Amino acid sequence: MRAEALKGHLDALLLAALEGGPRHGYAVMEALREATGGRLDLPTGTVYPALHRLADAGLISGSWSVVAGRRRRMYQLTAAGRRALAGKREAWQDFAATMSAALEGRPCPGLA
Amino acid sequence: MSGPGLIEDYRAAVAAQLPAAVADELADGLAETYDNYLRRGLGPVAAGRAAVAEFGEPAVVVAAFTRASPARRAARRLLLTGPVVGACWGAVLITGHAWTWPVPPVARVAAGMILAAVIALLAAAARMPRYRPARRAAAVACAGLTAWDLAAVAAAMVLLRHLPWPGLLAVPASASRIAFTARAMRSVLAP
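Above: the input entities. Below: the structure tokens describing the complete assembly.
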């Protein structure tokens, strides 16, 4: 799946990948790959800048450690990030239900 | 090339254009990718090639970071909101008959020139293809804009009793922009 197809949903995916606990950038990419059986293989140039943007927005926080002699930046969800993830999940479920109803020709859940 | 040499070269290539902290983070990610391929049974040279292919060539990653840089983001937002703040102050000047105010011509020209320079720098920062020049342009523009807003708010406070009603919009608009610019500067200048 191409990164462009995820426009508008990238933040939710990254927040969800951090929901289980702190991860570094490559581990976030791996988590998304594993969770989707390899169908979601986002490039470095998409994931890392987006993590920085989410950190600037206060939705995740970054902290440095040293692992095997290398500096490593770990990210974790903030309270604002958890709230944002819950909101994005709800919005996605609503969107997915609406699109499924429209594409499959059945009444929209909640309006039936 | 394999292992430490490959990772050090990669780090040096990105550090030439991106902040050191970003280069360290990317080098760690590449090292993880490399180790991952070694664990899967590839030899050091093949693992190195596969790791760079998966992680992305330095030029590609640097270009992506530049497109999403805090400097470009801040410049775009300030360019988008600038006309709103400008319209508020324009209304203050028109309704207050600014042409009758006892402001020395040199101060009027200086205010106009600073604003024009700030707009030009923001426009440049929003499009620059290189990370560091965009960062410098955005930082200077943010500093200039903050100075302009502070001067405008200070002048409004001095003239408080004679301030026309659009000042009630212009002063909070400039104050909000000062707060936004201060926050943006922290991201733009992050090491």
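Note for the figure: The first helix of chain B runs from residue 3 to 15.
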